[in-house]
Design brief:
Blueprint: E1 4-8, H1 14-24, E2 28-31, H2 45-54, E3 58-61, H3 69-76, H4 80-91, H5 94-107, E4 112-116, H6 125-137, E5 141-144
Parallel strand pairs: 1-4, 1-5, 2-3, 2-4
Length: 149
């Protein structure tokens, strides 16, 4: 079973992200942002999925596994610790559970990488998603650190 990777693009360049994904053997990026928009050039859904396709890497957006508005507001207000319980409540919902089940099943067959903005996985909800998947599958989790600008 392949490891489940995670990556944050906060300080990464698009080329650095692709290089890190290739080096890790990732076949598909799983975008776990609720809203796949970005002020950072190259990281909005359309540009990102096109760059990944050009590199031979798939793209799968799972907005149900994104942080809800209340959690994003807590982070913007400088209370990142408040995001975790908010996200865990969200993750218990039916839509998020269905997305988590689909992600878990696919991760058994394919080298996936969860993508979000936050560079440090300790402060990002993607680590909570990764933990649920790795507990269910027994696969290791690997956090990628792409080259920065």
């Amino acid at each position: 079973m392949p490891p489940l990777c995670t990556v944050g693009y906060e300080r990464a360049t698009p080329a650095g992200l692709v290089a890190a994904l290739r080096a890790a053997g990732v076949t598909t990026v799983v975008d776990v942002r609720a809203l796949a928009n970005s002020r950072r050039p190259g990281f909005a859904k359309r540009a990102l999925s096109a760059a990944l396709a050009e590199a031979g890497i798939g793209y799968w957006h799972l907005p149900a596994l994104g942080t809800p508005a209340e959690g994003r507001a807590a982070v913007r207000a400088g209370r990142p610790q408040a995001m975790h319980p908010i996200f865990l409540r969200h993750l218990a919902g039916m839509e998020a559970q269905a997305a988590l089940a689909a992600l878990t099943e696919r991760s058994r067959r394919e080298a996936l990488c969860l993508l979000c903005l936050e560079e440090d996985p300790a402060y990002c909800h993607r680590s909570l998603v990764a933990e649920k998947v790795t507990i269910a599958t027994g696969a290791p989790c690997r956090h990628l650190w792409p080259a920065t600008a």
